[in-house]
Amino acid sequence: MKRIAPLLVIAALTACGQSETPTQANVPTVDELAADPARLKELRQQCKTDRAKLGDELCNRVAEATRKRFYGDGKTPYTPSETPQ
Prior knowledge:
mainly alpha, 6 helices
């Protein structure tokens, strides 16, 4: 019985640890998302409808990638046209 008790304690402690969901295990980077507009669009829609399932980390990266695609890298200054339209 003395040998089984430590094993039970170890088993109980490892079972209590947080497990990663499949979506959190391999969250793509902002650059990867920004490079694939079709996937980004799909993930944006999923984040709108089911953010709890996808997780905050992924949805925050999707939002950042959307911002990056819209604004660019920030190195090109805004230059309005010479003639007003």
